[in-house]
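Supplementary Methods, section 5.1.

A reviewer requested that the exact input to the structure prediction be made available. We therefore reproduce it here, unchanged from the version used in the analyses.
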Amino acid sequence: MIRWMGWLVFTLLVAAAVHAAAIAYAPSLIMQRAMSAMGGRGINTISHVERATAASRTIVKPSPDLLYSHCVFDLSRQPLKIVTAAPADTYWSVALYADNTDNFFVLNDSQAKGRPATIVLVGQGQTIPPQDEETIVVAAPSQKGVVLFRTLINDDAREPELDRMRREASCEPLR
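The structure derived from this sequence is encoded token-by-token as follows.
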């Protein structure tokens, strides 16, 4: 009986340690893998992904009703300037993710009142010159992460127009 209890305690301790390690390290490992896959097209530059199909996996769980663009960022040298596109009469959003998968900022078409928006993303300890009042300044909780742009294809006939408009978005180092 005592031997059996010893194995039970040991098993529970190992299970607790594995669980704690998974919670602590899995988000960062997942994001590193995703950023590596997306970053093949460049860091601090926007990449436009073709419309999702059953075989698409650049974006996690892609929707075939959305056009995706992304920008893997690295703020270790300087802040990042993000300019959104603003297609009319459809949903669009820009979401910022830290290197541990936390979503720390989202802006959509309703919040931007249908106009393009400029976002300056600053890293820890970085300062920037004064920006105009329309510019949104966001402090990133990590030096690296992902900017994900989404545009809803609300009518298949509009796909070429929406694709052209989403390509007006940009993601580049702040000069």
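The mean pLDDT is 87. These observations are discussed further in the main text.
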